[in-house]
Design brief:
With about 120 residues, the chain is an all-beta fold. The strands form 2 sheets. Strands 2, 4, 5, 6, 9, 10 and 11 form a 7-stranded mixed beta sheet that branches. A 4-stranded antiparallel beta sheet has the order 1-3-8-7, with no helix packed on it.
């Protein structure tokens, strides 16, 4: 069973930066697909970046070139560096883990954190 705990959500100005963190336990950062999703009220959860088991990285078009996903295997951490923030990036951000598929669809992930709020104005 994988547990995920996000942190780092905050308020930011347009054009600013934030870094989200996700603690991944137990020690499985290198054995599972890890991803970041986001959700605004009334809309479906949107996959924005995934880090596959083989190291392949994908981004949604909406964040390509602005967001960077990374991990620290020694610390069992997943990160999302968010630069050039826009008001439309305002959402609850979730860390997710999956053991089979490594895409950007919500259905591919089995484990979820509780979310961390990002507000851009």
């Amino acid at each position: 069973h994988v547990q995920l705990v996000e942190s780092g959500g905050d308020s930011a100005q347009t054009g600013g930066s934030l870094r989200l963190s996700c603690v991944v336990s137990p020690d499985s950062v290198n054995d599972i697909c890890l991803a970041w999703f986001r959700q605004v009220p009334g809309k479906e959860r949107e996959g924005i970046s995934v880090l596959a088991i083989d190291g392949t990285i994908r981004y949604a078009d909406a964040v390509e070139g602005r967001f960077t996903i990374s991990k620290d295997s020694a610390e069992n951490m997943l990160y999302l560096q968010m630069n050039s923030l826009k008001p439309e990036d305002t959402a609850m951000y979730y860390c997710a883990a999956g053991i089979m598929w490594c895409g950007l669809a919500q259905s591919e992930y089995d484990y979820w954190g509780q979310g961390t709020q990002v507000t851009v104005s």
